[in-house]
Automatic annotation (TrEMBL):
Subcellular localization: Membrane
Name recorded for this polypeptide: HMA domain-containing protein
Principal place of residence: membrane
Residue span, HMA domain: 56-122, 137-203
Signal peptide: none
Family, per entry: Belongs to the cation transport ATPase (P-type) (TC 3.A.3) family. Type IB subfamily.
Residue numbers spanned by region Disordered: 1-31
Membrane spanning stretches: 307-330, 342-364, 376-398, 559-585, 605-625
Keywords: Copper, Membrane, Metal-binding, Repeat, Transmembrane, Transmembrane helix
CDD domains xref list: HMA
Recorded GO CC terms: membrane
Stored SUPFAM superfamilies: Calcium ATPase, transduction domain A (SSF81653), Calcium ATPase, transmembrane domain M (SSF81665), HMA, heavy metal-associated domain (SSF55008)
Name of a matching Pfam family: E1-E2_ATPase
Length: 705
């Protein structure tokens, strides 16, 4: 069942076409404005009106708004200021757009008016990052190879030092980075290269500049087809660059949106090939999901490989000594070492340097960037155990004094850490389920009405929903979802908007009525003119809000990140103190020699304790617990119709004692149901229910016939 978004305010929320249930304090008079604000609260509109002579416009970032009542309060406070001509507040964008007379009002007066109303305000010197002109863009990048909070801090530090980067936020749980940058100073490729130079994997996902499209190409069967496709792309004007993945048959195209649109690009390729090629737009969220699955499967393969190699080592050490025949084979001398030593050395070397190579790579990457992470601890602990065992074998071969080896310690530690990594990757995949469900709310295709120059409809064609352009006239049949936000230009029908408003009752839509993409048309056919498409639609802005909330850092997480940054050096220092303490106290006779392992010494005994300190203290949970909790909470909330702004709102929610709603209709299904049935006569309850069912069936037949 599609999630229903009510206006429960732990979050920013739009008001619906029908008045949704929300926290009390909303003025009833605000109802007249709600129909207008539903779409406006999600979008950054291009202001086309000409300012009156001498007037000035500013945009103000307003913090602390939680519902439509808050936005109305801000608007009211601004309009009461002498000299303010117009004031409009976008709830979900946390923004106020104010037109005023600079002779009577100053910017500071506007800020003070908002703060006096109980909110925080900041005058913006430039528009929002998602629709900024002057080259400022918001880009999203996937970042691979991060293992803990220290990696996140390292990547964020690298990005923030780049010229032209204004803001960078990295989320460990989603392996995503969001970067606000000036495209005139730095490009997407420069950001990707900077991340990769730091030792991590990076790829560009999408940006607020609609200049990239990823297409799946069907109809390629030979090298000639690839050459034909390349020729078609080269001949299209506005195509800046293209990359063809010959394995996955994916085509990545960078183009100039002012010269060619994504639909014209697809039409040009399909038309130029005479229908040989069929192209489908790849949704970036779907591609990210496939990457999550690939990471989980890769981690599972590593874990299985390590497990199958570690089990024989464990059996050689623990089980085989109890089986005389096998133990005699292991004690057979082959060169300078016993057969059992050769086997353990070979198996553990594969685990340590082949399966466990990722830990050395990640540890080297962290040290190169001047930081430490959990991979440093794993590499230190397992390497200490492995190289001590190798030295013990070589020392025994030279001197004849054989010390115990601890190969199985290294192998089993890597196996258990890989198991934890696999479970972690599964958890990270599940936390993005809310985003996947939201993406699935939008239809995959749309019916476009083709018109001639005179405006007469001459045909229909089915197109990918991601190729819809503003101004397109779309045909929406009964029972289907609206593919984009728009305005009804023909027809009349009822639309189920509970996805956004939470209102179960269908809303009548006639000519000039606004409609929301992803909502369901129930009865009649509609012709809808698309006004907002792609990232500008209400549904996309909801997805953006959930995504931003999942990337936000709770205040407690900032403390956890700080602890994680100094955790590894502290653990290494404690491990060294443990080594020195047990060794010195042993040499001084503070504990009996019976505690030592067979053929062991005080150094080996102390070394095992120090290795335990290093390995057990890996800060995986410290760096992952908080972001995972935030992601799960925001995802569960989104599935149940509650948008949560981020970790800060979750932390403050625990202090809430009472929640009061001014309307309960949106909190229920809006349908009458039988909850209990009681019989107050001597009639049997089963007989009574039978009579009720018979009456219901009789009424149904009378209604039909």
């Amino acid at each position: 069942m599609a999630p229903s978004f009510t206006d429960l305010q732990l979050s920013q929320f739009p008001s619906g076409g029908r008045k949704p249930g929300r926290l009390a304090a909303a003025d009833e008079e605000s109802g007249d404005l709600e129909d207008v604000r539903l779409l406006q609260s999600y979008e950054e509109e291009e202001r086309t009106e000409v300012l009156e002579e001498g007037m000035k416009r500013v945009q103000v970032r307003v913090s602390g708004m939680t519902c439509a009542a808050c936005s109305n309060s801000v608007e009211g406070a601004l309009k009461c200021v002498d000299g303010v001509l117009r004031a409009s507040v976008a709830l979900l964008q946390n923004r106020a757009d104010v037109v005023f007379d600079p002779k009577l009002v100053k910017d500071e007066d506007i800020k003070n008016a908002i703060e006096d109303a109980g909110f925080e305000a900041e005058i913006l010197t430039e528009p929002s990052a998602r629709t900024k002109p002057h080259g400022t863009l918001l880009g999203q990048f996937t970042i691979g190879g991060m293992t803990c909070a220290a990696c996140v801090n390292s990547v964020e530090g690298i990005l923030r030092k780049l010229p032209g980067v204004k803001r960078a936020v990295v989320a460990l749980a989603t392996s995503l980075g969001e970067v606000e940058y000036d495209s005139t100073l730095i490009s997407k490729d420069d950001i990707v290269n900077a991340i990769e130079d730091a030792g991590f994997e990076a790829s560009f996902v999408q940006s607020s500049e609609q200049d990239k499209v990823i297409l799946g190409v069907a109809g390629i069967f030979s090298e000639m087809d690839f050459q034909l496709l390349e020729g078609l792309l080269s001949s299209l004007g506005g195509v800046r660059q293209f990359i063809i993945d010959r394995t996955s048959r994916e085509l990545e195209v960078l183009f100039d949106p002012e010269v060619i649109s994504s639909r014209s690009l697809v039409d040009g390729i399909e038309g130029g090939s005479n229908g040989k090629f069929t192209l489908h737009v790849r949704n970036p969220y779907t591609r990210m999901t496939s990457k999550d699955l690939e990471e989980s499967s890769n981690m599972f393969r590593l874990f299985l490989s390590s497990l199958f190699l570690s089990i024989p080592v464990f059996l050689i050490r623990v089980v085989c000594p109890s089986i005389p025949l096998l133990y005699s084979l292991l004690l057979w001398r082959c060169g300078p070492f016993l057969m059992g030593d050769w086997l353990k050395w070979a198996l553990v070397s594969l685990v340590q340097f082949v399966v466990g190579k990722r830990f050395y790579i990640a540890a080297g990457r962290a040290l190169r960037n001047g930081s430490t992470n959990m991979d440093v601890l794993v590499a230190l602990g397992t390497s200490a155990s492995y190289f001590y065992s190798v030295c013990a074998l070589l020392y025994g071969a030279v001197t004849g004094f054989w010390s115990p080896t601890y190969f199985e310690t290294s192998a089993m530690l890597i196996t258990f850490v890989l198991l934890g990594k696999y479970l972690e990757s599964l958890a990270k995949g599940k936390t993005s389920d809310a985003i996947k469900k939201l993406v699935e709310l939008a239809p995959a295709t749309a019916v476009l009405l083709v018109k001639d120059k005179g405006g007469r409809c001459i045909g229909e064609r089915e197109i990918d929903a991601m190729l819809i352009q503003p101004g397109d006239i779309l045909k929406v049949l009964p029972g289907t979802k609206l593919p984009a936000d728009g305005v009804v230009v023909w027809g009349s029908s009822y639309v189920n908007e509970s996805m956004v408003t939470g209102e179960s009752s269908p809303v009548l839509k006639e000519v000039d009525s606004s409609v929301i993409g992803g909502t369901i048309n129930l009865h009649g056919a509609l012709h809808v003119q698309a006004t907002k498409v792609g990232s500008d639609t209400v549904l996309s802005q909801i997805i953006c809000l959930v995504e931003t909330a999942q990337m936000s850092k709770a205040p407690i997480q900032k403390f956890a990140d700080f602890v994680a940054s100094i955790f590894v050096p502290t653990v290494v220092a404690l491990a060294l103190l443990t080594l020195l303490g047990w060794y010195i106290f042993g040499a001084l006779g503070a504990y009996p020699e019976e505690w030592l392992p067979e053929n062991g010494n005080y150094f080996v005994f102390a070394l095992m304790f120090s290795i335990s300190v290093v390995v057990i203290a890996c800060p995986c949970a410290l760096g992952l617990a908080t972001p995972t909790a935030v992601m799960v909470a925001t995802g569960v909330g989104a599935n149940n119709g509650v948008l949560i702004k981020g970790g800060d709102a979750l932390e403050r929610a625990q202090k809430v004692k009472y929640v009061v709603f001014d309307k309960t209709g949106t909190l229920t299904q809006g349908k009458a149901t039988v909850t209990t049935a009681k019989v107050f006569t001597g009639m049997d309850r089963g007989e009574f229910l039978t009579l009720v069912a018979s009456a219901e069936v009789t009424e149904l037949f009378q209604h039909v016939f």
